[in-house]
Write a structure and sequence with these properties.
Shape: globular
Bound molecules: FE3-S4 cluster
Radius of gyration: 21 Å
Strand order of the largest sheet: 12-11-10-13-14
Structural class: alpha/beta
Order of helices and strands: HEEHEHHEHHEEHEHEEHEHEHHEEHEH
Oligomer: single chain
Mean pLDDT: 97
CATH topology of the largest domain: Aconitase, domain 3
Number of strands: 14
Strand content: 5-15%
């Protein structure tokens, strides 16, 4: 591959992987079972990214199952949502270049809920930080936080350099977090936000009361990955590798942090940049599971919303929500299920909204900087207003 025997796209990709391996002193490459590729929204990659991808698509084909991160618009309903034709045309060219390379265009940051589900111990090259955090921590697969080009190169070559979180030795805890308060809803994102700031790129080990479920872990990981650079965390008695996280460590190898009720409350307040009522509420960061959509539908049943509501998810979850009747209930209330995109990578700043309500600490962290809009962070029950 490196010598160009498989064509220029593979050669270029292998050069990138070898350079990465040299930087991180990897001893060899490891075969991957899947890739997840970011760098999809035209808002984030622009014309330079579009041109690069169209050139690659002329010859490059992926060797492993690969899926895409969210794009900048709902690919089917962009016009109804108010996105411009000019932006969408470029966005569709990006998605079609990826599709030409053999990548599945499900455009979601929760591919593990939509056909790209790894197994325990499998090696991956994934690039969406919240998804990397989920598959490393909750599933026990192994991926570094790849950049878009690194993940694409790995998908094309079917390999990635063996370093970082691919190695058992780098999966040990660096910070024990004792949580001394019960957590629910948006508390998990707030906890992730405050621990991420302390642990940076380390590996937190949580001792929490109760048993957080998959949706709670999804929120926690996304927040850890956005306020810090976390790619892996452990939760005692919950995640699959927690019992290995402390093995072989000595006193002094791990720091200790205690989180009380007032810390969580504080973090929740810090995540809001406004006290105004949100004119648009965006749920589904990371993209909503069917279970989350079902709970939102039962909360909205028979009510009429005052603010606009987007529930961001993948087309697979939306198809199931349609069949279950959740979409109808949500639309009757005045909300909508939006697929392929999200409140951060879509150009929502071009729409008429000013204050965005979110129940995701990751979204609260990024909406002000990426979209220039104000944000309110709370549980969905407190963000939505009814007629
Ligand atoms: Fe996904 Fe967008 Fe949040 S990509 S994790 S919904 S910022």
């Amino acid at each position: 591959m490196y010598q160009g025997d498989y064509g220029p796209a593979v050669e270029k990709s292998m050069e990138i992987l070898v350079a990465l391996g040299d930087i991180y002193q990897a001893e060899k490459m490891v075969e991957i079972s899947s890739a997840q590729i970011s760098g999809v929204s035209y808002k984030t990659i622009g014309d330079a990214g579009l041109e690069f991808l169209e050139e690659m698509a002329q010859t490059a084909r992926v060797r492993v199952p690969s899926t895409l991160n969210p794009a900048g618009v709902d690919l089917d309903h962009w016009e109804e949502l108010g996105f411009s034709r000019e932006f969408t045309e470029r966005q569709l060219r990006i998605v079609s270049a990826y599709q030409k390379m053999g990548i599945t265009t499900t455009c979601t940051c929760t591919p593990y809920l939509a056909s790209n589900l790894p197994t325990l111990g499998s090696h991956l090259a994934w690039s969406e930080s919240s998804a990397v955090c989920y598959v490393n921590s909750v599933i026990g697969a192994r991926s570094n936080r790849e950049g878009g080009p690194g993940a694409l190169s790995a998908a094309i070559c079917g390999r990635t350099p063996l370093y970082g979180y691919h190695l058992e030795s780098n999966r040990k805890a660096s910070l024990v977090v004792e949580v001394e308060t019960n957590l629910r809803g948006a508390d998990y994102g707030a906890l992730g936000y405050l621990v991420g700031k302390v642990v940076g790129g380390g590996v937190p080990y949580f001792q929490v009361p109760g048993k957080p479920g998959p949706n709670d872990l999804k929120s926690l990981g996304a927040a850890l990955a956005s306020s810090g650079a976390v790619a892996l965390y452990h939760v005692q008695d919950v995640t699959p590798e927690y019992h290995l996280a402390m093995r072989g460590l000595e006193v002094g190898d791990v720091d200790l942090m205690t989180v009380e009720e007032s810390d969580v409350k504080d973090a929740r307040e810090k995540l809001s940049s406004s006290t105004r009522k949100p004119d648009l509420v965006c749920l589904g960061c990371p993209h909503a599971s069917l279970d989350e959509v079902s709970k939102i539908a039962s909360f909205l049943n028979g009510k009429t919303l005052k603010n606009d509501l987007w529930i961001c998810t993948s087309i697979l979850v939306k198809a199931a929500a349609d069949r279950m009747g959740y979409t109808e209930i949500i639309e009757k209330a005045g909300g909508r299920i939006v697929t392929d995109t999200c409140m951060v990578v879509a150009p929502i700043e071009e729409l008429e909204y000013q204050v965005i309500g979110v129940n995701s600490a990751k979204a609260a962290n990024y909406v002000p900087s990426m979209c220039g809009l104000e944000v309110v962070y709370d549980d969905l029950e407190n963000l939505l207003y009814f007629k």
